[in-house]
Amino acid sequence: MPADSPSMARTNSSAVLPKPGSQSALREQNQQRVIAALMSGGPQTQAELSRQTGLSTATVSNIVKVMAGSGIVSTAPTTSSGRRALSVILNDNGQVAAGIDIGRRHLRVVLASPNYRVLQEAAVTLPLGHSAVEGLRAASDLLDALLEKGGINRSALLGAGIGIPGPIDRRTGTVVQGAILPEWVGINIHDTFGEQLQVPVFIDNDANLGALAQVTWGPHSGVDNLMFMKVGSGIGAGLVLNGSLYYGNVGVTGELGHTTINEQGLVCRCGNRGCLETVASTSTMIELLSRGSNETVDTQRIIDWALTGDTAALRVLDDAGVAIGRALAHMANLINPETIVIGGPLTSLGEILLGPIRRGLARHAVPIIGETTSVCMSSLGDRAEALGGAAVVLAQPGLSPALPGSTSTFSLFSP
User: Where are the alpha helices (H) located in 21-131, listed in sequence order?
Assistant: First the structure.
């Protein structure tokens, strides 16, 4: 996982470093490899740790015994492929990672431990059209409030993974044209948040973080090729290809919301006509269903109407679903994902939205791709992006927790 943080270091200056190449140095290096694997992938069997680290099963078994005896990890019997196995989980060492999801109208912050346990979580509403300064201040205040509520010292904060609903140029760390937050375009999010929060920060598109959450926190940890599509005020996709997030050339990928669906359609905020967002975003749904209604329409109202069988809401959702499926088919024909996960505020609709999405996918995808690609709702709901932000922090190798008595030097780096 690429790191966007400046170089920092944490050392134990009072101890003597083991001689490079010595048995103790090699043993400690192998322990750190196992810890890094547990931090990036969550609880795993010893066989899975062996595959991920490249260490032999005997070496992993010995390392796990030592770390279990030191209280670094816990083990529990489990089954893997029908066989008895030993599950290994990293114990809570008091450190935490923050995941911050900033949307057009919302802010969510989660605090998670290195053993992938959510310690604190909260969400607040943001004013429509908020500036980067306002969003940053709200995120900082909510983060401080959660740390205080959990009795967590700020020094225990490993870093913050921050999701923004828009394309980010990874060369510069700036939000580029086409973001759902036009007030943020041109802002260097990395520098701005880093200065305010005073911890390592990792900035990414919210859909990318949603995709990461599916293979880290969700039930899709064994999926190497996955597409996560967030349907909300904007529409975007995060791609996991061959087990890694895909960023392309400059980091602007998965912009399915700007796939042309109708060349004579409405002008989109990106400047083109008939983009998917003009047909299937929640903003478009709200606008359509507000016509002729005396009630205030929002996303929750659309969900409530649909679940009670309102014909207008069901028609709008059906049209949107088929259009989403059509856009997904074009992408599926290109990358052939195993699983497509739908996220965002409409996940509670289940088959009401999944049905038309599957129809659109089947109609426009190559038959064998349509038949072999599973489409499901995210089990993480609207928490996915924030959980993905925490996962980014926990995946950084330089942020692994120190072993008791460890003399290693750790560093955070930008590759």
Answer: 23-41, 46-53, 57-69
CA distance 164 to 132: 11
**What's the DSSP call for residue 87?**
E
Q: Beta-carbon neighbour count of residue 378 at 10 Å?
A: 24
| Angstrom distance (rounded) from CA 212 to CA 219 | 12
| Sign of the C-alpha dihedral computed for residues 286, 287, 293 and 294 taken in this order | positive
CA 24, CA 19: separation in Å to the nearest integer?
Answer: 8
CB 162 within 8 A of CB 102: yes
Mean pLDDT rounded to a whole number for the chain: 83
SS3 labels along 295-360: CCCCHHHHHHHHHCCCHHHHHHHHHHHHHHHHHHHHHHHHHCCCEEEEECCCHHHCHHHHHHHHHH
- Residue 275 carries which DSSP code? B
Structure confidence at residue 284 as a pLDDT band (50, 70, 90): very high
What is the reported pTM?
Answer: 0.76
Token code pair at residue 289:
């269903």
Which residue, among 393, 386, 5, has the nearest Cα to 164 in the 3D structure? 386
- Token reading at 411: 């560093």
In whole angstroms, give the CA distance from residue 113 to residue 358.
37
Distance CA 159, CA 1 (A): 14
Closest to 45 in 3D by CA, of 222, 171, 253? 222
Choose between 367 and 37: higher pLDDT: 367
* Residue 400: burial class (beta carbons within 10 Å; 0-12, 13-18, 19+): buried
Provide the percentage of residues in the chain whose pLDDT is more than 90. Answer: 43
Q: What is the DSSP code string of 170-220?
A: TTTTEE-TT-S-GGGTT-BHHHHHHHHH-S-EEEEEHHHHHHHHHHHTSS-
